[in-house]
Amino acid sequence: MTTPSSALEEIEGNVQGHRDGHGFVLRDDGMGDIYLPPNEMRAVLHKDRVKVRIVRQDRKGRPEGRVVEIVERPPHPIIGRLLHESGIWIVAPEDKRYGQDVLIPKVAIGQGKPGQVVVVELTEPPALFGQPVGRVKEVLGEIDDPGMEIEIAVRKYSVPHEFSDACIGLARTLPDKVRAQDKLHRIDLTDVPLVTIDGEDARDFDDAVYCEPAKVGRGKGWRLLVAIADVSHYVETGSAIDVDAYERATSVYFPRRVIPMLPEKLSNGLCSLNPDVERLCMVCDMLVSAKGDVYAYQFYPAVMFSHARFTYNEVAAILGNTRGPEALKRKARVNDLLNLHDVYKALLASRAVRGAVDFETTETQIVCDESGQIEKIVPRVRNEAHRVIEEAMLAANVCSADFIQQGKHPGLFRVHEGPTPEKKDILRNYLKALGLGFGLSDDPKPGEFQHIAQATKDRPDSQQIHTMLLRSMQQAIYTPVNSGHFGLAYEAYTHFTSPIRRYPDLLVHRVIKAILARQKYQLPSLPLPGEAHAKLAKRLQKNKAGAQVESDAPRVKMSLAEQQAWEAAGLHCSANERRADEASRDVEAWLKCKYMREHLGEEYSGVVTSATSFGIFVTLDAMYVEGLVHITELGGEYFRFDEARQELRGERTGIRYAIGTRVQIQVSRVDLDGRKIDFRLVTDEGVGRPARDRSAPSAEGSPARAALRTEGREGREGRATDRRKDGARERTASPKPSTKTAVKQALDKKKIAKARKSRR
Length: 760
Description:
Layout (H helix, E strand, L loop, with lengths): L9 E8 L5 E5 L6 E3 L1 H4 L7 E9 L5 E10 L5 E8 L2 E6 L8 E3 L12 E8 L8 E9 L6 H9 L8 H8 L14 E2 L7 E3 L8 E10 L2 E11 L10 H9 L3 E3 L2 E3 L4 H7 L7 E12 L4 E12 L3 E3 H9 L4 H5 L4 H21 L8 E6 L5 E7 L3 H23 L6 E3 L5 H13 L12 H11 L5 H10 L5 E3 L23 H14 L13 H12 L6 E3 L6 E3 H38 L5 E10 L2 E6 L5 E5 L8 E4 L4 E4 L5 E3 L3 E10 L4 E8 L2 E2 L23 H4 L24 H20 L2
Parallel strand pairs: 11-18, 12-19
Antiparallel strand pairs: 1-2, 1-4, 2-3, 4-5, 6-7, 6-9, 7-8, 9-10, 13-14, 14-17, 15-16, 17-18, 20-21, 22-23, 24-25, 26-27, 26-32, 27-28, 29-30, 30-31, 32-33, 33-34
Helix pairs in contact: 2-15, 3-4, 8-9, 10-12, 11-12, 14-15
């Protein structure tokens, strides 16, 4: 081992613990993580901000660190089971990344009873020779209580789930309906038959649509109206409701429960575009040509009256049969729906010309019983009505981005950049290894991805190819610096259509109103956590030279203070969007694990959704549940991981396991705390020993589970997030390893965890 020349350099970052006792420091500068051995983790906790010094490197040049300072210990509560062992009270954290049990003095257990799930507040931090000490702050109940997994998740991920007294008090003062003074200086659209189209279980309706034929230029086209709930009329900047909404930044969706961004009086009442009542709205009024291009648009505040509340299934049935029973019930609106379908087909044609990425993927829905337990997991079917609304919302979002740019006003854009050089090289090597004959330019365009997808859609390994295309893309973020949306092939894109449940959309509404009034919207002072402050400071370092900062958006200039405020808002909203996704996935993973505990030992067919150096991940056909087949369960030969082909290949027999390979498995182990499911491979000869070559992927199986879903795929959820998995399983040797071996094993575990997370 050698000591690096930069050994005296102190590096700041966040601690990420591991259930086996070691940890890593995720560096603020984005460089490689630094390994912390178990002895270094004794005095720190998961999520702490620390300064470390690299003290050694292993033979592969991977760094090991020593903690020199704890910069910040965020006041995150620890959730776990209260246990009474040998006269000592402890709490075993539900999140195993904390690595240490918390001692609880008898006087500090409150109303807690052995076995209950509690929330702990630390009173003494951990030390090199002492465990952390805490007190029970809240008793959540028994582990098997209905909805306990949600109660745990909202606290585990620090999701705000209770509105402040000031917010609730202010919401009570709001009117129950639109008043006469609210209608001043608004366009009256109450006679326009706008309708809402949502899912059967939707409770808040933030968008309504209407379409009619119109002359566009010298040709035919359509007038498309997208009316969005005017939340900004009721939620003033800096008000108590606004503060709580900003803190949440988004609504969080769990099976059978939603944690809304706004109080229910707004989200389900005053701001929801319910049928047969007047509502305030912001309208994007567009003229769309026969080729699907937006010829002209305008924004204005209005008052509307929803003439019908449709469901996706109902609209799809009407579009499929205009003389069917659904159409007869809604006879007055059938022609309007046909106009919507016509403009959708034009917009879809424009999308194809633009080269936007459009992969078909399978989303799933967890169906629970009254007690909150899983009854079944079913595919979420996207029908023609979903696509009609998606295209209408996309068009309005593009117009809002253009309006902000033309108005020379700062704002938050939804930015989705192309693949990084590393991901681009991996994809190139993969396509080359398969001999597909498709090249990838140095600066690839979305159309190249879509061309590859279309050209390979009928191949038996299309699932594998499309998944690799999706995984090569980056995560979408909110930022005031516009660099376009790669997946949708838009030069500028933002979120305008969901202000009830997304704070960025509320900001966009305020900016549009300011431009219409020839004013400038001023962001309030917004708080940022320490890690976000560090990232923001690094982003702004390059701008220190001048007081004026010009963004990529044409003719939009911001002062340094404005740039910092908008960057802060973007960072906060992006981080909280990821927090909401992680909390939702955590609950779904817990429910699936509990569900699969009832199926231990049973056999199912499935498809490989990822191949790694330590095994294969398999998604079951019948249940859409994913688990790991560890490499030791693949048989008695040596398997080598081919990174270019993304497959495991047996050296002796040549057996291959790649994305799309069909397999038969047995459910062997379920770790509820770790949210992990293990499978064993089943063959003609039993469990764990392959009997024949399974290398040819089947064309019949469930579609690939995409690692990244573009905005268009998400419809009004509007998310373009990586699908990540927490942690991964591996076998550790029973003898105590040497320091060098321990570092290698720990870093290999980190590699496994990253591989699982990169696929989420």
